[in-house]
Amino acid sequence: MSSLREKLSRLKGLSSGAEKEARPVEEAPAAPPALESSEPEDGGAALETAVQAAAAAISETTVQATSQLTDQAAAQATDQATDQANANADTPAVSGVAPDGFLHPAFKKLGIVEESNAFGAFLLRRIEYPLEHRHGIYPLGALVDYAACLKPVAYRQNQARLDSEGQERMTPRKKKKLSVKDAYRLPLPEPEDTGKEPGAIEPGRLLFFDTETTGLGVGVGNVPFMIGFGYYDEGRARIVVEQTLIRHQGEEKAMLQYLLERMNGRTHLVTYNGRTFDWPVLTSRFILNGWRPNGTEPYHLDFLHPSRALWRNTLESCKLSRIEAERLGIERHEDVPGSLAPELYVRYLNDGDASHLEGVYLHNEQDVLTLVTLAAHFGALLADDPANEIAVPQAAEELYRTAAWLELHGRTEKSERLFSELAKRGDAHAERWLLPAADRYKKLGRYEQAVELWERAARKAEDAVVPSIAAHVELAMHYEHRNRNYRLAADYAERALELTCRLPVFGRENPKRREERDALEHRLNRLRRKSERG
Description:
Blueprint: H1 2-22, H2 44-87, H3 105-109, E1 113-117, E2 120-130, E3 134-135, E4 138-139, H4 142-146, H5 151-157, H6 159-170, E5 206-213, E6 224-233, E7 238-245, H7 252-263, E8 268-271, H8 274-288, E9 299-302, H9 304-311, H10 320-328, H11 341-351, H12 358-382, H13 396-408, H14 412-424, H15 428-431, H16 434-443, H17 447-463, H18 470-481, H19 486-502, H20 511-533
Helix pairs in contact: 1-2, 9-13, 13-14, 16-17, 17-18, 18-19, 19-20
InterPro entries: RNaseH-like_sf (IPR012337), RNaseH_sf (IPR036397), TPR-like_helical_dom_sf (IPR011990), YprB_RNase_H-like_dom (IPR038720)
Pfam families: RNase_H_2
Protein name: Ribonuclease H-like domain-containing protein
C-alpha cells in the first residue's frame, strides 16, 4: 500500500509541474476526483485503475501545454527571421557564397552580371571602348593599324614551333603513338584556316589577357580568381574587355570553359610575362579540372621581352606600371597594386563584401588596355611607313637599344637613322655606346664609319681614369690586316700596351690581364718586324 501512495505522490508532483508550465498559455484542468479519495474500496486493483486514469489525464494535459508553447515559440521565431531577412535584404552572404540571383551592390555598380554555362555559374563584366578612345599616347584603334607589324616579334618568340610546323608541311605526316606528354595537352580549339602563312597577325585574332591569382608561383595551388581579356570586335569596331570572377572554387571550371570559348579562332595570346606565369598557371588549372587534348595552343606574344630589350637599364624597372608612366603616357589614379589583389580577394571571401574587389577590377582592366597600347607602340616602331617617324629616344642607351632592336627585327632603315644619331652625340653617356655601334658597322663591312667611332672611343679611353684598350686593339687590327699600315698599327698597339700599365692592380695581378699584355707585346713585336721590312 505504501508503494501505491508513493506513486500517487509522484504523479501529483508531475501534475503540479505541468500546471506551472502551462499556466502562461491556459489553465490546466484540475486533477481527476479519483486521485483525491484516500483509498479505493476494492484495494490494489481499484487503486491501480485509478493510477492509470490519472497518468493518462496528466499526460494529455502536459502534451497540450507543451504543444501550445511550441507553436507560440515557432511563430515568434518565424516573425523574427522575416524581420531579419527584410532588414538584411541588401547584405551579401558570408564567405563569398551568395544565394542564387544575388549580386552585391558593388558588383552591380561595375555592371557585373552572373554568367552560366554547362559547368556552372561565374561573374562576368564586359566593357566596350570605341577605337577613338585614347589610352595614353595612342588611340586604341592604333592596334588595327599596326598589329600586322608585330609579326617579326611574334616570329622570334615562336621560332622553334613555327620552324617545326613549316617542316611538317613539307614532309608527309607520320602516325605516332600518343605519349604521356601529349595526353595532357590542352583542349584548345584549332584556329580557323585563313590561308595565310603561319605567324601572320590580324588584330581580330589577338587575345590580350591578364590574370589575378591567389599567389605568385606557377604551382597547382595558385588559383586565378580573375581573368581579364580583351579583343578587337571587327564587326562593331570596338575594343572589348571582359573580366571573369569566381566567388568560390566550384565556379572555376565554368570560368575556364568561357575562356576557351573566347580563345576559339585566336592565333596569338598577348600578355606581359604571361608566357612564363599566366599561361602556365592556367595550364595547371585546365589539367586539374579534367580537360584532355583536343588541339594546339595559340602562339605567344609576350611584351615583357621587347620591353626589357629597350628599357632594362633606362627605366627604374620594367614593371608594367613603370612603362605606362614613363613611356606610354598612362596615368593611374588611386590604383590598387596587383600585389594586393590576393589579400583583397581573401577579404571578400571572408566577409562577402564585394567592395574590396572594385580596385582589383579597375586595375585588371587597365592592364588589359595597356597591352593593347603596347601592341600599338611596338607595332608603330616596326612599321615600314616612312611617314611614321618614331621619336628619337633621349637616353643614349635607349637610343642604341632601340636601334639594335629594330635591326634585329629587319628594320634596318629605321635603325640606321638611330645609329647615325648616336654617332653624332658627343656626351659622356653616348660615348659608352660607341664601341657597340662600331662593332655593328664592322659586321656590315662599313669600316670607315667603324674607324671613326673607334678613334673617338680611343681618345676617350686615353683620358679616362680606368681606361679600356678595346678601341686601340680594334684599330691596330684594322690597320694591320686591311690597310697594311704597319707603322700606324704598331702605334695603336704600343698605346694600348701603355694603357694596361695604368690599370690599377689590387693584390695579385689578374691572369686575364697578364694574357692581354702578353698578346699586345706579341702583336707589337710582329708589327715592328713588318714595319722594318717595309
